[in-house]
Design brief:
This is Phosphofructokinase domain-containing protein. This protein is an alpha/beta fold. Helix content is about 40%, strand content about 15%. Helix 2 (about 70-90) runs parallel beside helix 18 (about 475-485), helix 6 (about 180-190) crosses helix 22 and helix 14 crosses helix 20.
Length: about 650
Amino acid sequence: MQSSTYPECLVLGGSPAWDSRATRARVGNACNPRDATRIAWHGTAGGTYFKSCMFYFCFLSIIGAAGCCSRRRGAVLADRYKTQYAPAVSGYSPTLTHHSTREAERAHDARARAKEACASGERARGSLMGSVAVDSDYGAPRELSPLQKARALYNPELPPCLQGTAVTAEYGDAATAADLAGAHVISQAFPHTYGQPLVHFLGKTRADVPDASVVTEHSAVRVGVVFSGRQSPGGHNVIWGLYDAIKAHNSNSKLIGFLGGTDGLFLQKTIEITDEALSCYKNQGGYDMLGRTRDQIRTIDQVKAAMNTCQFLKLNALVIIGGVTSNTDAAQLAETFAESKCSTKIVGVPVTLNGDLKNQFVETTVGFDTICKVNSQLISNACTDALSAEKVRSTRYHPNVILGEEVAASKLTIFDITKQICDAVQARYEKGKHHGVVLIPEGLVESIPELYSLLQEIHGLHIRGVPTESISSQLSPWASALLEFLPPFIRKQLLLHPGSDDSAQLSQIETEKLLAQLVENEMNKRQKEGTYKGKKFNAICHFFGYQARGALPSKFDCDYAYVLGHVCYHIIEAGLNGYMATVTNLKSPMNKWKCGAVPITVKSIVKPGCSQDILKAALSAMAYVTDMLTIMSSPSFAGQATI
């Protein structure tokens, strides 16, 4: 295939060179927590192929770090909005080619919430939980396209440590905080599940290893599984791997899926997972086998409902598939179950597009590999359209402007960002490059100091129960001025009620439209002043927030998710509670993958509203157990078994 020049991209939030595993790892590490996908502008400049300077603004939901802003500085920034930018952007409404994805998400949530539970008993419990009705077609056979059928034929593999039915559970040191004060804080919050040992699963054992146990006879188990949070490619394969594992060890075991996410868990809406039910969902994207919800297991009533369901169904374990918030809830649920002497064990699985679960134990999450590849193609398509004359032969991109975490670290304002983008556009024009693509992280709005401070004030008023229509009147003077002079569409989106995880609905805030207009306004100003001699700047906005969520998982994610499903079974078999399934050494061939389990409290107890004491203690605990699994699996580790 003929090589072509890589198109250049303006990147806010990390390099878009997604096509190699090493590069994806760098991108994941460079981006701030909750990496995922949202793309915003692409375009071309006037000249050879186009009549105007056009840039594609591609908005990626890679969420950045939060900035900060003083009130005095905020007042100055508000004045700048009023005098420089607000008049130009107040009526701006560019065409958003993928705007329907946002509207579809909003409409889907509204329709789902409007449905009623079928039975009167479900209505009674549903009113308590704010339930969403469970669609009757979850888990039903579906028609597969030829491409889906081809992907369904792929058979995931298992690493040697999980092959066969004789698997060793080897225990390491307790995951405790090095700082005694921090350990005390966490142990007080999680007295039953904090400080549990790390676990490493091995395929063979030696007779002289006293703390390694091999189980050859396996009793039948009843396991529940639920999707929690937004869908991520590969989620179905976790269920597939778990199902194959429990059936391989005892054919009488049952796997029970909860329909409609945590709402189905509260309402006891279930389906038994069978070979027939799985056949249409193996290696498939989405969560449509069971459905999902964005609600969490948070309130006392919800925790009680979840416990009642587990006890009523006599579940040996409940597997929660999701991201950091879902696993945080799993940790709290495990603690409550242990305190209440409920026999059901809680197991978490790291399945999310975001990067907020990555640590020394979770090298990547299920779905991240897929979304990198899918978004590479989407970005490539945008670049191809921007170039218009030559086809892009590669999905690798060479960024020429990177506005990543320096936005937060350097406290860059939205005006600073606008200037940097405009400078890059002008520099490209002077080199005869009349096109470009700008990648914007979804979390950029939280990295811009003045907007972050505004969001914090709005969030505080939401927590206090202030009605949305009254929020603007109760903001501080600078925040009120800033909000007033923002474009109406941004103003409305900033005032949206926080999501179920108590964070701003970043996917609904169209930062790309705001930046596109600010850049266009500045380029027009430079053109009038004679400092920019190009033709009129045009921006086309794209939002890639949901396109990859239902994509067919990559082979890596198919294997990774399937293996994690097997690991879940061995966690259950070992009688562990409050653990997350992990696989490490993922950069190596599968025969070198290392499977284990880590207490969820090591990573996931921190959530919005968590005290600083617990936050510091959690970080201390993570520092103490760094590379512990590597040490456990090394030949020098005492009691190491031969694999």
